[in-house]
Amino acid sequence: MALKDSYLLPAAADMHVHLRNAPGPIAELVTPTIRKAGIDTVFVMPNLAPRPVVTVDEALEYKKALQAYDPEVNYLMSLYLHESITPDEIRKAKKAGIAGVKAYPRGATTNSQWGVVSFDPFHELLSTMESEGLVLNLHGEMPSSPTDNVTVMNAESKFLPTLASLHSKYPNLKIVLEHCTTADAVAAVRACGANVVATITAHHLSLLVDDWSANVHHYCKPSAKSPEDRRALLQALVTSEGKFFLGTDSAPHDISSKKGKGNTAAGVFTQPYALGYVLTALEEGIARGDIKEEQVTEEVLAGFLSEFGRKFYELGPAEKQILVKRDGAVVEESLKTDKVEIVPYRSGEKTWSVEWQ
Amino acid sequence: MALKDSYLLPAAADMHVHLRNAPGPIAELVTPTIRKAGIDTVFVMPNLAPRPVVTVDEALEYKKALQAYDPEVNYLMSLYLHESITPDEIRKAKKAGIAGVKAYPRGATTNSQWGVVSFDPFHELLSTMESEGLVLNLHGEMPSSPTDNVTVMNAESKFLPTLASLHSKYPNLKIVLEHCTTADAVAAVRACGANVVATITAHHLSLLVDDWSANVHHYCKPSAKSPEDRRALLQALVTSEGKFFLGTDSAPHDISSKKGKGNTAAGVFTQPYALGYVLTALEEGIARGDIKEEQVTEEVLAGFLSEFGRKFYELGPAEKQILVKRDGAVVEESLKTDKVEIVPYRSGEKTWSVEWQ
């Protein structure tokens, strides 16, 4: 076998999660699955509907509601970059321990209707974030546009000049290119200084465009791309050196938003089995020859799954350890209450399991 | 307005349709919608399940069953290229009026599991088709393969060297590259001699990858691609000169195959409103600047919708005429019997209507 049967690792940190409105039926179902996956720290995205999280008070209230579902998790809260946010609010955010401000290009994904059209009007805000040390989290896609030949397949690559320009304009601003999906993005992040990093999801380590073409549970934004792109992500993971770390972008949707009438909501739900999926994807990548067996060391896993994200967000090391074991888990067909049903990624399949030590 | 309010045209020919097994509940529902769209001649695809049409007798029996649903339509029948077909069967097919032999790369689309892995073993058959004047109809996609970096997005472009090689090996063989979807394919077909033509569907004149990413009713093989590709298809239509003509690839699937459990079946159902969709797509293409208003003449429409296909298959001109009128139709939400429900393309939207003269 390519990998060891088990790895003893520091508790994981998932630096990009969607938990939805709290209190609320999806948050109630999903939040308790975070620690099940071996994760003790999550960066919580602010794109709630009907109103995103734009004030520190809202973020803290949201955090309190999530703590009611699981007080053991460390929730890193964020604001949704919006013109209503003042430099004073940024300073208040830093003091209150808010971890980042998320920028959504308008129209690029779920609940991005309040998002950014141009970064120019945000100059003062970004400068304040730079001096305060508050992280900018980027959904790195241009909105699709037939006129500009932007589609879901090249939307990320077309965004990369914006990343480079933000980095050059605000060299001390800490930036995360969230859920990167392309070889282009991996190269662009590597080309930037140490302040620029990227998260990689679990599902983009195994999905291709073909997989989501016929399966709505595999459809997300940014969409999964080509075999070359997937190879670049796997390579980025095993050669990260702090530049790339886990952010699952786990995005729970009720099955009615996936299989019901009308268009399919974008998002892959990976929260309860996030680490298992990563390990399975690494095994498959080794089998395909995308990465080499010897590249997947305990050190690499600990860095990508736990240490690099914590370091970037200036947290201390994990206090607890987890044991990740081959084939210990079978993914549920769905997570279900009387109010919602959410189908997890690779439902019904075997994956690696996690035990808290 | 960009276009005239109505066009008097020869009855249309749809040189690529899926009518499914006959007798059968889908064929019973769909076949009577052919003439509703202003079409009197259809090329019927042979990829039935559980067994494709591989003998002349089967094709003629299938034809008879379709005639029972609508005797007024001229059904051009085809065989499914398969190792069980002999050169004698090809000669028999020509005598019996079979119009073509369809080649499916194995694994590329619906019911392609009996398809072609390599064309080399078919040398004698293809030579016989060449000398007999029987058309080769190509599903022009390589099967997806992570090893070879083939995905649904580049599968057609990767197939084009095979088209060029078949044309060079059998220069007198009449070849149709079915449902072409890319600028690459348009250029490749133009680069071949007069024996090589391509069909273009109605839906690929308006769909992009973004449209099918979140809407299962827009998902088909080959999948819709980029704005540049769509522009190339619209340009091919208005500058066809016989090289490009209508083949809708209308592919009815029960809603359970689209929205039910499991993966989504590939195919867009366009039969009852095929001409309306083409006219609507041309109007939208003019509005976007992909084509010019003056390029859409009565002559261009008559050629693409009716004359070029008939000429390629060596049929006489249409006997009847149709009047295609702006905004006369609203697409049904679905076509429904107690056995099946099929959602048509652009359901609920306005489109052009057709009247028989």
TrEMBL record, chains A, B:
<dbReference type="InterPro" id="IPR032466">
    <property type="entry name" value="Metal_Hydrolase"/>
</dbReference>
<dbReference type="GO" id="GO:0005737">
    <property type="term" value="C:cytoplasm"/>
</dbReference>
<keyword id="KW-0665">Pyrimidine biosynthesis</keyword>
<dbReference type="GO" id="GO:0006207">
    <property type="term" value="P:'de novo' pyrimidine nucleobase biosynthetic process"/>
</dbReference>
<keyword id="KW-0862">Zinc</keyword>
<protein>
    <recommendedName>
        <fullName>dihydroorotase</fullName>
        <ecNumber>3.5.2.3</ecNumber>
    </recommendedName>
</protein>
<dbReference type="GO" id="GO:0046872">
    <property type="term" value="F:metal ion binding"/>
</dbReference>
<dbReference type="InterPro" id="IPR004721">
    <property type="entry name" value="DHOdimr"/>
</dbReference>
<keyword id="KW-0378">Hydrolase</keyword>
<dbReference type="GO" id="GO:0044205">
    <property type="term" value="P:'de novo' UMP biosynthetic process"/>
</dbReference>
<dbReference type="GO" id="GO:0004151">
    <property type="term" value="F:dihydroorotase activity"/>
</dbReference>
<dbReference type="InterPro" id="IPR002195">
    <property type="entry name" value="Dihydroorotase_CS"/>
</dbReference>
<keyword id="KW-0479">Metal-binding</keyword>
<comment type="similarity">
    <text>Belongs to the metallo-dependent hydrolases superfamily. DHOase family. Class II DHOase subfamily.</text>
</comment>
<comment type="pathway">
    <text>Pyrimidine metabolism; UMP biosynthesis via de novo pathway; (S)-dihydroorotate from bicarbonate: step 3/3.</text>
</comment>
